[in-house]
Amino acid sequence: MTDKNQKTPQDMLEREAREEALAPLLDNGWRLDEGRDALSKRFEFKNFVEAFGWMTRAAIWAEKWNHHPEWSNVYNRVDVTLTSHDAGGLTQRDVKLARKMDALNS
Ligand SMILES: C[C@H](O)[C@H](O)[C@H]1CNC2=NC(N)=NC(=O)C2=N1
Question: What HAMAP family would the database entry show (predicted)?
């Protein structure tokens, strides 16, 4: 998150809300990217069909919420990075999508 007093989207997280929102995600396999304000996680599945099935379900929510992950898939593995491009960093939209991705994987 930037400290410069620029115009930022309304859902940019303030420090306290941000820490509260991020703590459970960081406990659940998400990490803060170094070098950019983004959350990343590697999801692993039994096989490609499970991985791609999960991606399909996540994609439907991403499209519904107009908030899209950066992700790549190799066989049973999906590497996800979440950040809000318009904000240049994390917003509530990333937290919401991260929680949904975890819920779809439980
Ligand atoms: C025009 C459209 O609303 C925007 O490009 C949306 C689409 N999905 C998006 N996804 C993410 N992660 N960040 C954005 O800023 C974003 N913007």
Answer: Pterin_4_alpha
